[in-house]
Automatic annotation (TrEMBL):
Gene3D superfamilies: FAS1 domain, Laminin. Residues 101-139, 147-184, 703-743 form the EGF-like domain. GO terms for cellular component: membrane. This is Stabilin 2. Residues 344-467, 481-616 form the FAS1 domain. Residues 1-16 form the signal peptide. The keyword Signal applies.
């Protein structure tokens, strides 16, 4: 019996080698340099291969960390934007993997156009075939008896095999002796066909023909390898009458379709992943190579980092380190800032470095004697360092140095056209041409000669001369032998605060051993605190006054202004927090309302005093005044009326409280609802309590503000305040008084406590206030008259033109050199 081998028409396989596999894309990548001090940013460079597109100090949109003294600061800084054009490796469509190998194809068609290749750099080259197709390149029909481009035709061979598959035409290879289009007719001429023949033709015209892939040798058909039997990267062989396809070394597949083997696609090709990269050299061939910046005599066993640092890579002030990417970097210590090449120390260290020609020798002496701790371990500051070759005789360096420091970091462009406060409390006005004046002495002009010199704790500007035109505040240190209590008692600018201390009913530790930091409000600040709060605390709430005073004291250390500037908050003796803020113009503000420091660093034997323009109110005593007197109103309501046996299952309305007693004999709802039968039931008693907002006596409006004159003496006791939460705070004056606060006598010629005393103003307007003393209003005298009562005129005393102001009922007499 003849055996017919199931065959398909073989079409040569191609990798499309003539097609480019790489479709790389060019793109621009952006890189931001490490954030650093803005004064250092102007010299920052981009990494090799990048181009800087920002100018000057770059982008002020980042922050950097630096250690100043014992504290770590997160300060606003600058960085630059760098760009680089890079070529990104991309595979063309129908190529896959890092090496862009071709996807399996058939007859030059990727996945035979009957599937989708998992292509791209992350793909694995697998063909995902459409429904009805199979094979490595989707070159077969899933139904082995189907044929045609879409595998949608069915073979009809009764006694033979079909030329099936997407490239088949459905022709039947009839098994002898059958012939015909469907192999359903016996042909006498094919009865003697040997093995590997098929009956070709019909009826008497049928002949024996070798099957495809076989060649006639004599009377037999022998298997041969013909072009297209196997993939071009496969070896064809004939065994036991059958041919076999085997992919060449370095390729994989079924022999009819062979694809290159890329060992790099899995497990980095066996190369150590942390130090090497797998290089594809050809099908099945890879080598291990060291990552950029690494080296090894045998990369397959791993590589080690090689130093990219040379003597010229970094400045001597920095440490060169090679990163994992092989790029050298210049590293600064935690106490320094850098520009990517060199590192910069403190203001004091930088002044010494800058003294190349000795022009700053005197400035070094000034900063070392006056404020070395500040410019070495505190900040950040903006230092105005003068050209000064020799030290200044007869000056207080500690006081003079403060004129040369500004809190915060200020580049020269930020100073132009602005008023800035110095560390000493003086106001500087900077002009637009790098010159500046002090508002206390506007005639002396200073010039910035060199600007924006970076330091780890600030910025340095070199100026043309020292600031010696302002009086030194040496008195602040001359009191160092006295206690805080003694200093406050002897100076009238503290007398409002001292009055509160004397009348608070408790002893404060101002004459104790310390250390203390005391924030003393100015007299004006306490005078502005005139809503009745002070009077109320003095008379009815001394415990609140004591808490208020303790909130102005810090008992853990004597904090000078530079120490305050480096802190964000302190805990006072009132066990409350005072927040500290530095403004852009160099001022220190305390508390929620931002009370500014006016006079700083008044040194005492047991601490330091700072004068502030504001009163610090701890939250623990707010509100100070008893302004709210809300009223609780209650009423009794009843719950639902039900059968008394069901009473336990009912509840009082939301927001009410159930009482012990309950109502009996109420009319319960009938069951069913429209029944005419009345049922006597029970209901719970419930208590509803509501709070009605109300102001205390002497307060008015939704916020319960105190009436004019204070809540204890509304309308200065000369009228009735329209108080209460619905009131507007206006005064209804008693007869004889007028004004918004009933503080003026309604009769223009009266004065006195009860507005019943006659005014003695003769030729002017009477000061008709209750406490006006019956004199004339200042500046109201008619022309030619003067004096408290406008009752004096300028009278000539002699012919030489000597005048004297005399009463209108008197005359001037001249005797010798005297007038009378």
């Amino acid at each position: 019996m003849l055996y017919l081998l199931i065959l398909g028409i073989l079409v040569p396989y191609s990798f499309q080698q003539e097609t480019h596999s790489r479709c790389d894309e060019h793109s621009i990548i952006q890189y931001s340099t490490p954030c650093t001090a803005c004064a250092a940013a102007s010299t920052v460079t981009c990494p090799r291969g990048f181009r800087k597109i920002t100018t000057d100090t770059g982008n002020a949109n980042c922050s950097y960390i630096v250690q100043i003294g014992q504290r770590t600061f997160n300060l606003p800084g600058c960085s630059h934007t760098c760009i680089k054009t890079v070529t990104e490796r991309r595979c063309c469509p129908n190529f896959w993997g890092p090496r862009c190998l071709p996807c399996p194809s058939w007859s030059g068609k990727a996945c035979n156009w009957h599937g989708t290749c998992l292509d791209g750099p992350t793909g694995n080259g697998t063909c995902v075939c459409k429904n009805g197709f199979s094979g490595l390149a989707c070159q077969e029909c899933t139904n082995k008896n189907a044929y045609g481009e879409h595998c949608n035709s069915e073979c009809s061979c009764a006694n033979g095999d079909c030329n099936s598959g997407p490239d088949g035409d459905g022709e039947c290879y009839c098994q002898p002796p059958f012939s015909g289009p469907k192999c359903d007719t016996v042909s006498e001429s094919c009865k003697n066909c040997t093995d590997y023949h098929y009956c070709k033709g019909e009826n008497a015209g049928a002949i024996c023909e070798c099957l495809p892939g076989f060649k006639r040798i004599g009377r037999i058909c022998a298997r041969i390898c013909v072009p297209g039997s196997c993939d071009k990267n496969a070896e064809c062989s004939v065994k036991a009458g059958r041919f076999e396809c085997k992919c060449h070394l370095g390729y994989e597949g079924d022999g009819k379709v062979c694809v290159p083997v890329d060992h790099c696609a899995q497990n980095n090709g066996g190369c150590p992943a942390n130090s090497t990269i797998c290089d594809y050299k050809g099908p099945g061939q890879v080598v291990c190579s060291c990552l950029n910046g690494m080296e090894s005599s045998n990369p397959s066993t791993g590589c080690v980092m090689k130093s990219a640092c040379t003597d010229s890579t970094c400045h001597i002030s920095s440490l060169c380190q090679t990163g994992q990417d092989g790029i050298p970097r210049c590293i600064c210590s935690a106490q320094q800032v850098g520009d990517g090449y060199r590192c910069f120390g403190t203001i004091m260290e930088r002044i010494v470095e800058l003294n190349h020609a000795g022009d700053l020798t005197g400035a070094i002496h000034l900063f070392r004697k006056g404020c070395e701790l500040s410019v070495s371990q505190r900040g950040p500051f903006t230092a105005l360092v003068p050209f000064l070759r020799f030290s200044l005789p007869g000056v207080s360096e500690s006081s003079l140095c403060k004129h040369h420091l500004i809190l915060g970091q200020h580049l020269s462009d930020e100073l132009k056209g602005n008023d800035i406060w110095t560390y000493s409390g003086e106001t500087i006005r900077f002009k637009t041409d790098k010159t500046f004046i002090f508002m206390r002495d506007p005639d002396t002009l200073f010039t910035i000669k060199e600007s924006n010199i970076v330091a780890s704790n600030g910025i340095i500007h070199i100026i043309d001369k020292p600031i010696t035109n302002l009086p030194s505040d040496a008195s602040n240190t001359q009191l160092a032998s006295q206690t805080i209590g003694d200093i406050l008692a002897e100076d009238t600018k503290f007398n409002r605060f001292v009055s509160l201390l004397d009348n608070c009913g408790a002893s404060m530790p101002l004459r104790g051993p310390g250390p203390l930091t005391v924030f003393v409000p100015t007299n004006n600040a306490i005078d502005r605190f005139r809503d009745g709060s002070v009077l109320y605390m003095l008379s009815d709430a001394r415990h609140k006054l004591q808490e208020l005073l303790k909130h102005h004291m810090f008992s853990e250390a004597a904090l000078t202004v530079d120490q305050l500037a480096s802190m964000s908050a302190i805990n006072t003796m009132a066990k409350q927090v005072i927040n500290i803020k530095i403004t852009n113009d160099g001022r220190i503000l305390l508390g929620e309302k931002g009370a500014p420091l006016e006079t700083k660093d008044i040194i005492a034997s047991n601490g330091v005093i700072h004068l502030i323009d504001g009163v610090l109110v701890p939250s623990s005593i707010v509100p100070i005044l008893p302004h709210r007197c809300d009223v609780n109103e209650s009423k009794i309501i009843q719950g639902p009326c039900v059968r008394c046996s069901y009473l336990f299952s009912t509840e009082c309305p939301s927001g009410s409280t159930e009482l012990d007693a309950h109502l009996k004999g109420c009319e319960a709802s009938p069951v069913p609802p429209f029944s005419a039968t009345k049922i006597m039931g029970c209901a719970k008693y419930c208590k509803v309590t509501k709070t009605r907002p109300e102001c205390c006596k002497g307060f008015y409006g939704p916020d319960c503000k105190p009436c004019i004159g204070g809540f204890t003496h509304p309308c200065y006791d000369k009228g009735i305040c329209l108080d209460g939460i619905q009131g507007n705070g206006s005064c209804q004056c008693v007869p004889g008084f007028t004004g918004i606060a009933c503080h003026i006598c309604s009769d223009l010629n009266k004065h006195g406590e009860n507005c019943d005393e006659d005014c003695h103003c003769v030729h002017g307007e009477c000061d008709n206030r209750p406490h006006g003393q019956g004199i004339c209003r200042r500046g109201s005298c008619l022309e030619g008259y003067s004096g408290d009562h406008c009752d004096k005129t300028a009278t000539p005393c002699n012919s030489d033109g000597v005048f004297e102001h005399c009463h209108i009922n008197a005359y001037c007499s001249y005797s010798g050199s005297n007038t009378m």
